[in-house]
Amino acid sequence: MLMRGGTSKGAYFLAGDLPAEPAPRDALLLRIMGSPDPRQIDGLGGAHPLTSKVAVVSVSADPAADVDYLFLQVGVDKPEVSDRQNCGNLLAGVGPFAVERGLVAPGGDRTCVRIRMVNTGDLAVAQFPTPGGSVDYSGSAELSAEISGVPGSAAPVVIEFPPGTGPLLPTGRARDIVAGTPVTCVNNGMPTVLIEASSLGVTGYEEPAELEADPQLAARLREIRLEAGKLMGLGDVENTTVPKLSLLAPPSDGGAVMTRTFIPVRCHTSIGVLGAASVAAGLRIEGGVGAAVARLPEHGDRMRIEHPTGFLDIETALAYDTPGAPAGVGDAALPVARRTAVVRTARKIFDGTVFPRPA
């Protein structure tokens, strides 16, 4: 099934319809998506990382989840398939896909699907309308949502993320100096490095194509990413897509912050759900690099993250805990994400048979 999930598009498969072993599975997916080829002319891919994605879904053996969701990023012009990260955009389509394929029974007018993200082991709960026992993608006039980067409106998919088990600050510090640049390394579902745009000699309001065409900026970002990856416990990230890098600038349209996110070389035309979750949490961290540029809301958990094509609203709440001590006690208090939720939309585009390029 080809689906739009959030601001991405990908092919959704039942795990049982693909080879079980990673090597033959990945080889098949490269042929299905038309990679390696910058145009992906001979496959389903759309010649961009945001449209060269795969979701593999199955019934979960975890009692805390209904289905397992494995995300695979398929390289466009390189023969690479990576499972090193989650994708919060395709996550929006996992619940509806599970109902469509009979993995989960609809639960009345609204259905909740508990999802285990296999890439990291994290959990999410997706809630979406299923009137009459069928997934409603369009939404009624009273119940619809718009998200930046997607034309029109659709039925809302509310995704809530329980607190993760890993540290919000992988380096144990609110601020690090990486490759001579102040950064905040944060992981609230997506390993992300927050950088004040002005520290790299850009405004943070440039068009993605302009930033991508700057070789000096690309070299700086690569240096920061490689060094930050080691600090965050990710090892050598030369050939991976994490951590993401988000440049921060003051908001321009009433939000909390303006962002430009690299994934890792291409500049995102919007921002990923889990990347936005990490940015939002990072902005709330005392002493982080976002403090100088962000305008945090005075009340409530909801925060608007601006990006090149609009905004994403996300809700986050933090608490400060000290290992082995009551919350907020002691100088070693560390921030912990207590709540993260986001509203996305998804749509079924095509359901049928794909014919892969011959091996």
UniProtKB/TrEMBL annotation:
Keywords linked to the UniProt accession: Isomerase
InterPro entries according to UniProt: OMA_tautomer-like (IPR047687), PrpF-like (IPR007400)
Hydrolase as UniProt keyword: no
Superkingdom per UniProt: Bacteria
EC number: 5.3.2.8
Pfam family of the protein (one): PrpF
Keyword Phosphoprotein: no
Family label: Belongs to the PrpF family.
Protein name per UniProt: 4-oxalomesaconate tautomerase
